[in-house]
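Take a look at my tokenised protein here and describe the backbone shape.
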Amino acid sequence: MKICRFLKGDVQRWGVVEEGAVFAVEKSPFDHDPSAGLKRTGESFRLDDVRLLAPCAPSKIVAIGLNYRAHAAEFNKPVPEEPMLILKPSTAVIGHGGEIVYPSHMSRRVDYEGELALVIGRRAKDVPVERASEYILGYTCFNDVTARDLQGKDIQYTRAKGFDTFACVGPWIETEMDPADARIETRLNGEKRQDTSTSDMIFDVFTVLSFVTHVMTLLPGDIITTGTPSGIGRMKPGDTVEVSIDGIGRLRNTVVERRPA
């Protein structure tokens, strides 16, 4: 099932995407009995006639650094012994079709990082690995936009990854997929830049979720983004970046100049 959040007119709604159409549902997927499913209202719209929003509104985004072997090699870094946690603020979130604002007042190098992200379905604390799947609502595409020059300059990565619009999420949440061997592809202006399977992850999705919940409580709608493969690269204003994941779909965003305050 593909769960989306969308605007029709000025009204924000939840829906299920099927065959080019959006079927409105009565409640948020975080506000119902999972065993009962999502009840449809009877209304439907062409997908092209609605505006897709970020498919959730996380209280926080936990990004995992250096979680692909080839990406660690790309940066000449050793394979980490445990997941490396980075926080991105909720104010960084934009959805499919949203604009990434280039922070030219501070950075001269902004990169794309295509990633598989998981969306938390219910409150999660100290979750054992073998039960991790019970806490995942589903999966989505993510672009962990990063000011690479600031990442190298700062001791920690908050500034490099925390600018407004630096967390691209969407286009929807897929509730039925196998995250163990899914292809991730990132294209910049139509040219393929990243193409890797999630099987190259150092720490799998369930290990990562368990690890994070032994550090902090995750709330419904929170996001864990599971690291980027090799092939990261620079973006500039005017560029279009697309992150595609087998079984989910394609997230597309454009890069724009920062407007004067």
About this structure: The mean pLDDT is 95.
